[in-house]
Amino acid sequence: MTVFLTDYESGVSDGRVPAQPAAPFRHGVLLYDGPQEYLDGIFPFLSDGRESGAPMLVVVPGARMSLLRDALGPDSAGTRFADMAEVGANPARLIALWQDFLSERGGDGPVRGVAEPVWPGRGPAELLECQGHEALLNLAFAGAHSFDLLCPYDGARLEASVLQESVRAHPYRFAGGRPVTSGCAAVDADPARAFRADLPDPPQTRDRLAFGRAELPRVRDFISDRLAAAGAAGTRAGECLVAVNEVATNSLRHGGGAGLLSAWT
Predict the structure, then answer these.
(1) Contact call for residues 244 and 2 (beta carbons, < 8 A)
(2) Cα–Cα distance measured from residue 237 to residue 231, given in angstroms and rounded to the nearest whole number
């Protein structure tokens, strides 16, 4: 439901070998054309990870999970899979997913992930959220070590503007399963840029409620009814209700004493 209110040393004198720096977070894009290029790009990445003993999490749409599982065969048992169509239905949850996975690894060893948040059929609002998520990953894991995240994009079926944004969000690209610096001048230096874009227009069929200072109870009832109709319940419904109430209150206090609330599924 959517709610919308208008230091390493280079030399060591005693002969000891200096410690090697931990690899940085490497967030890379893989542009593929068809199932074979998909496998050719991802399989070496997962194979290298398996050989190094790296924990691995693959989050791709369901049909892609089956493709990768079949390619890995018995070796897929050591790799975790999740359906991006489910866990990424709200792309804002994905950074937390990777944070949880990293916290479970129990050490500073290498970690690998595959994430395909964008695929043909994602709507405009979903694409905008995914693009923001991809850019913010570079901030969220800037301090992470030895974390390689490969993000495949369907280079044959996605629009050119979507592919351009994918390059802007990824400082690396993957070749032969290994990340290399993209060398692309278009890499986004402003990860929050996507969140300053205009939101998509609400649908014409949305429910609307004009409210004033005395009508906050009506706002809460309005949202409660629509949360129930959308099947939302428990903690998530309660948190949404609190959030809407707070924003509506701020709208009254700082926005002239009136507001217009729109809700749609």
Answers:
(1) no
(2) 9
Residue for token pair 């503007």? 161
pLDDT of 7 = 31
Structure tokens at 36: 């074979």
Task: Give backbone dihedrals phi and psi of 27, rounded to 5 degrees, phi first.
Answer: -105, 110
Q: What's the 3-state SS for the chain?
A: CEEECCCCCCCCCCCCCCCCCCCECEEEEEEECHHHHHHHHHHHHHHHHHHHCCCEEEEECHHHHHHHHHHHHHHHHHCEEEEHHHHCCCHHHHHHHHHHHHHHCCCCCCEEEEECCCCCCCCHHHHHHHHHHHHHHHHHCCCCECEEEEEEEECCCCCHHHHHHHHHHCCEEEECCEEEECCCCCCCCCCCHHHHCCCCCCCCCCEEEEEECCCHHHHHHHHHHHHHHCCCCHHHHHHHHHHHHHHHHHHHHHCCCEEEEEEEC
List pLDDT tens digits, range 74-93: 877 779 999 999 999 888 88
Contact 172, 182 (CB under 8 A): yes
Q: Which residues contact 89 (CB under 8 A, 6 or more apart)?
A: none
Predicted confidence (pLDDT) per residue in 61-74, tens digit: 988 999 998 888 88
Residue 261 tokens read as: 């609330």
Residues in a beta bridge with 2:
264
Residue pointed to by tokens 């802007």: 168
CB 238 within 8 A of CB 246: no
